[in-house]
Amino acid sequence: MAGKPMSAANAPGSTKAVGILDASAIRTGLLVVSAILMFADLAMIFMRMPVEQSTGNLFLIFYFHVPIAIVSFVAFFVTLCASVLYLISRKDVWDSIAHASAEIGVLYISLVLITGSIWAKPANGVWWTWDPRLTTSLILWLIYVGYLMVRAYAATPNQGARFAAVVGIVGFIDVPIVYLSAVWWRNAIHPNLYLGPLAPKGALNSEMALGFLFSFITFVSLFLYLLWERASLRMDEIAVKSILSET
C-alpha cells in the first residue's frame, strides 16, 4: 500500500526553514521600520519642533540626548532580567540576550555622554564637569564596560557568563541613582526634571512632549533591531563553537 504523499509543509526540515524565514522577515521589518522612523524623526526635530526660549536651537539636542539616555536604561533593564533568567535556567539564549543588550546599552550611554558634552559646552562653557548626574552616568558606563571586560577575560565562557550576570544585576542599581541625582543634588547643569514620575506637570509643552515621544519610539525601534541582530549573532557563535568542540 502506497504511503501518504508528504506535503512541503510536513517535509523534514521545513519547520526549521520556515522559522529561519520568519526570523529574517522580522529582522528586515525592524530594520526598515527603524530607518523610516529615523528619517521622520530627524525631519520632525529640525523642521517642526519649536525653539526653546532660553537656549534656542541648542535645545534640539534634547530630542536625541534624553531618549537615548532612557533607552540605555531600558537596555540595562533587559540585561538585568535576562541575567536573572540565565542564572535560574542556565540557558544560552538568556545569556545571549543579556550580553547583546549590555553591548547596546554601552553604545547608547556612550552617546549620552557625547551628546551631553556637546550640549554643555555652549550652554555652560565647559565640555565636562563633575555634576552628580554626569558623574553617575559615567559610573554607569564604567560598570557595563566592566561587564563586557568580565566576559572577555574570564577563564571560561561559562564562568564569564555567570560573573557577568551578577555584574549586570548589581550594576542596575546605578540606573535609578542617575535619574534621582537631579532631585537629590540639584545644581546649575541639571536644575530640573523634564520627564518621569518626579518631573513637574507641564515641564514640556504638548508639542515638545510629542516630539520627545516620537524620538523615544524611534530609538526603541533601533534598539530592538540591534538586539535581535546581536543576540542572533551570539547564538550563531555558540552553535559554531559547539560544532567545533565536537569535531
What is the element layout, followed by pairings?
Layout: H1 14-47, H2 62-89, H3 92-124, H4 132-153, H5 157-171, H6 174-184, H7 206-246
The structural domain count equals 1
Number of contiguous helices: 7
Estimate the mean pLDDT confidence.
84
* Helix and strand pattern: HHHHHHH
Low-pLDDT residue intervals, each spanning 5 or more residues:
none
The biggest sheet, with number of strands, parallel, antiparallel or mixed sense and barrel status, is:
none
Q: What is the number of strand segments?
A: 0
- Determine Rg (CA atoms, Å): 22 Å
Give the structural class.
Answer: mainly alpha
Helix content: over 70%
Envelope shape? globular
Strand content: under 5%
Distance between the termini: 42 Å
Task: Report on the architecture of this protein.
By secondary structure, the chain is an all-alpha fold. It has one domain (56-234). The protein contains seven helices and no strands. The chain has helices spanning 14-47, 62-89, 92-124, 132-153, 157-171, 174-184, 206-246. α3 (92-124) packs antiparallel against α4 and α4 runs antiparallel to α5. It starts with 13 loop residues before the first helix and ends with a helix. The relative contact order is 0.14. The model has no long low-confidence stretch (mean pLDDT 84).
